[in-house]
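ingest -> validate -> predict -> emit
validate: passed (alphabet ok, no gaps, 322 aa)
predict: started
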Amino acid sequence: MASILQAPMAASVLPSSSVPPRRRPFKALCASNSTNFAKLPIPPLNPKDPFLSKLASAAATSPETLLNRPSTSDTPPYLDIFESPRLMATPAQVERSVSYNGHRPQTPPPDLPSLLLHGRIVYIGMPLVPAVTELVIAELMYLQWMDPKEPIYLYINSTGTTRDDNETVGMESEGFAIYDAMRQLKNEIHTVAVGAAIGQACLLLAAGSKGKRFMMPHAKAMIQQPRVPSYGQMPASDVLIRAKEVIVNRDTLVKLLAKHTENSVDTVSNAMKRPFYMDAVKAKEFGVIDKVLWRGQEKIMAEVAPPELWDKNASIKEVGAV
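emit:
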C-alpha cells in the first residue's frame, strides 16, 4: 500500500538534475511584445475626460511608458504624461460636488462684525465698555490701513458709558478714546444714529465729518452730565479726587459738543444741566446732525404749506386780529 501511494508522488517530483526554466521579466516581455499590447481591447472611456483619454492613448501606442515607471519619481502617477499637468477641478468645485446643497458653504460663515467690516461699516450697538472700545478702535485703524481715501460708516446705537437705568458701566475715557481715534483718521467718517445716541455716543455722532452726520427718523439723541461712579468703601479723600475728575470730564464733553454743534459753551452747558433729549428734527436744529435719513421727507416737507397759509386758506383768524 505504501508503495502504491508513493508511486505517483515520486513521479511528480522532479529529479535533482532537472532545473525549471528561468522566467523572463514581465517588463522585458511587454517591451518585446509591444505590438501585441496595441491590439488589446480598451474598455469604453468617457470622451470628455482628458486625463483618461490621454492615458488610453499612451497605453495603446507605447505601453512601456506606463510600465517602466521610475521608483523614486516625485511626480504623482501618470500625471507626467501631460506636458503641463493641471488639476481636473478646483477645490471649490470638488467641495460643491459632494455637498447636498450646491449654494450652501461648507465652512461656518464669518461673524457679523467681520461682514459689516467688509462693507467698511463699524457698528456700535452696546454701551462703551473697554471691550467695545478696543474693537471699534481696531476696526477704524484697520479700515484706514486698507484704504485711507474711502469713507468709513459708523453706525451708533449706544447708551454711552451708562446703561438704560443710568448705572455707570464704563469710564468717560472710553468715549474719548474712540473720539480721538476718529479725529486722527485720514478717512471721512459718516456717522449714523440708529436707535439711540446718549452721552458719549452723542459726541461720537456729532464728531463725524461735516455734512455726513445722519440720523434715522425715530432715533433719539441725548446729552447729559457724566455720572459719578459708585464709591463703596472708598476713603473721603478719594471721593473728592473722583468728583474733581468727573467735573473735568464734564467740561471736556461740553467743549467738544460746542465745537461740533457750533453752539456756545453756555448753550451746551445749560442744555446738559438735566438730560436733554432730541429727536431727529431737534438734533438737526441743535447741530448734532446734518440730515435726517428719511426717504422723500425733504421733498414732502418742502411742499407742505406753512401754518399761516393753512390758517388763511381755512379762513381762520387770530383773536384780536383785524
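The beta strands are 121-124, 152-158, 189-198, 213-215, 220-223, 276-278, 291-292.
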